[in-house]
Amino acid sequence: MELFVEQPGQLVLRELAPVPAPGPGEVKIKLLYGGICGSDLSVFKGRIPYAKYPGRAGHEALGVVAAAGSGTPFAVGQKVVTFPNTFCGECEFCHAGKTNVCKHKQSFGLNAPGVFASEVLVDHRFLVAVPAGLSDERAVLTEPFATVVHGLKKAGVTKNTTVAIVGCGTMGLLSAVFAKHLGADVTVIYNRHKHEAVTDSIGGLRVVQAGAVGEELFDVVVEAAGVKPSVEMAMRLAKPGGAVVALGITGEQVDFPVIRIVRSEITIYGSIIYTKADFAETLAYLNDPALPIDAIVSKIMPVADYRQAYEAAMSGDHVKIVLDFQGA
User: Quick one: how far is CA 119 from the chain centroid?
Assistant: First the structure.
């Protein structure tokens, strides 16, 4: 079976054509879990201009190698996660190690075929091995958590850094997990959805509603909501000499307080996805039992219940919804 977006608003689960044996450099994987991301929802809603229709959905995936073509480093039975943003390896950015901004980058489930299928062929360059012993429920979070690891590293978050995270969705809560793990003093700012069970599970967080922040300032502010008011709030909350990490994406015009940014020497870090090095670090963090990440997965639902799963993900009442492809 494969999950297919025929056109905006039209999602279908359909029979999968037989997947051929992998050619040189290719790996056939049997999917175990697939995480539903905000960008998957945006593709479904028709909100991403460069998304291609019709197309297979999904990019966050954990699978097991069913067959491996020649020239690949993977063995049958090995667990892998997708590295779902391609890179050419030839452009100036790739040569500089910045594969995340490759000129020819394509994204699974957006402008390249997604991976929400019971079996799928993937170029071996876009798979990463999962460490033995790492639980499936943690491994499926590798891709979104790598985005957070990549971004927060830029700002040098360490023990006792005061960090405000604007947004209490998946990326905001993953940012809270990572910042807390690094020893920071973390404040999570929410608007509608507090996700109290998750913030309690992370532990040691201060959680406040957007209207109750007051005049407090922070060393590092992570913008993780991707809406105009949140971006503008993030700019206001950074201390002189502080930093803003922009993880959220919005097409809205945003008012930047230029005088304050310049006079207070506030650094703004744009951050997009990750590199292979970020994936390696992320998997190491996930393999640490002390990382308080387990509550991020709200529900695991069989792929046959994809409609209910997408509705749950769109409701905002949950953090991460995961599809189970085993037996599909």
Answer: 22
